[in-house]
Write a structure and sequence with these properties.
Order of helices and strands: HEHEHEEEHEEHHEEEH
Number of strands: 10
CATH superfamily of the largest domain: Translation initiation factor eif-2b, domain 2
Distance between the termini: 35 Å
Strand content: 15-25%
CATH topology of the largest domain: Rossmann fold
Helix content: 25-40%
CATH class of the largest domain: Alpha Beta
Shape: globular
Number of helices: 7
């Protein structure tokens, strides 16, 4: 984005505040410091903003064998919303985050992925506030990685290459 701004490309970034840890606010401040035009939005405003954006870009905590991702809570909701509005959903990640896991739904994620150490002491938080969710590969348009640009279905092939 910094390169695009320096090349005088015109664009605007919407950053969700990313509750509960508010890491989106940190991202917003970094973008503002780089003079990148951006707007901070509530997580619950993603559906409202979606019709005005051209694409969605997220990172990933983990890319699973199916090509789906495990990422910050709300990523799945954002991906579903993007698909409904026919907007591409791109994942920007490094190949060292590829994993030989094969979850089929949210319940297949191990608890050590779902809940942070900060909220494992409070049973109410444990059951109500996971820190990550699983986004099915059918919602992902492309993955931009250090190995190149991949379709979600290509992740398993790349994992085979990495583990041979």
């Amino acid at each position: 984005m910094k390169l695009a701004v320096n090349s005088q490309k015109r664009f605007h970034v919407f950053v969700s505040e990313s509750s509960p840890d508010k890491s989106g606010i940190e991202m917003y401040n970094c973008l503002k410091a780089l003079d990148i035009p951006c707007t901070l939005i509530l997580d619950s405003a993603v559906g409202y903003i979606m019709e005005t954006v051209d694409m969605v870009m997220v990172g990933a905590e983990c890319v699973v064998e199916s090509g789906g991702i495990i990422n910050k809570i709300g990523s799945c909701t954002m991906a579903i919303c993007a698909k409904e509005f026919k907007k591409p959903f791109y994942v920007l990640t490094e190949s060292y985050k590829f994993s030989r896991m094969y979850p089929l739904n949210q319940k297949d994620l191990p608890n050590n992925f779902i809940y942070s150490e900060d909220n494992t002491n409070d049973d109410n938080l444990l059951s109500a506030h996971p820190s990550v969710d699983y986004t099915h590969p059918s919602y992902i348009s492309l993955l931009f990685t250090d190995l190149g640009i991949l379709m979600p279905s290509a992740v398993s092939d790349e994992l085979i290459k990495l583990y041979l």
